[in-house]
Amino acid sequence: MSPQKSGQAALDNQCRRMIVLAQLREMIGDFLPKPARQHSSEVRKNARLSRFGNQRRPTKERRPRGRSMKPNCPVLKKVDYEVKTVPLATCQMMVEKYHYAKIGSNTATFRHGLFLKVLPEMCLGIAWWIPPTKSAALANYPANWKAVLVLSRLVVHPDVAQNAASFLIMQSVKLIRKDLRWEYLLTYADEWQKHSGAIYKATNWESKGKTTPEATWVDAEGRMVARKVGPHTRTKAEMESLGYKMIGRYSRHRFGMSLRQNAVKNLELES
Prior knowledge:
Layout: H1 3-31, H2 35-49, E1 81-85, H3 88-98, E2 110-116, E3 119-130, H4 134-140, E4 148-156, H5 164-177, E5 184-190, H6 198-202, E6 206-210, E7 214-218, E8 224-225, E9 228-229, E10 232-233, H7 236-241, E11 245-250, E12 252-258, H8 260-270
Parallel strand pairs: 4-5
Antiparallel strand pairs: 1-2, 2-3, 3-4, 5-12, 6-12, 7-8, 7-11, 9-10
């Protein structure tokens, strides 16, 4: 193992330990039972069900208000985390390790990373923004297609709290809003990965329907491969000759977010 990979593995292990330590108090407070309340409730329930003998009716488990449905995954505490700009290499590393596509663009307009404040050297997630294709920008924001950005990759470390992705998106958008060049944001959720875009609905994106089904290609290692290379779109025969495999035709859920109103408000505040 190379020194770089071994160093990254050590950081991953340290990351897991720090996340557990930082969230241990919340986990205990959220998921340890409250004996007095549960005892009295259980007594009343047994009294109501006593007429059924030893067989108890199945009851649906209720979700505790304001708590996670995953007992080992507490809700992220915003005060413990921050989002800041990261190098492109960090985005590429996170995508290769934790994203199903395994690969991303060679450029980026914004590169935002999620960090635990007590572990500032370890990136726990990335939001990778690039300009979309001209056709996609015109189809979604014809008023000014050059002012459109697309969330190309969104990745969070598997050991981070369940709402880390929504926190990362909101903080990333907040940073982009400070740059008044950008007026509209796009993002997609891949159906071939059984994604419905729930995270985008939860962070106030507007659903724009589905895209036309397109062929999805992967290489021998399972990494997604685009047919378009610069101005040229490779044919099926060209893709197959390069050793790529088409795994099916899938639509993507499309979401948009307008930043124009926010930009106008910021200009008014500065004037």
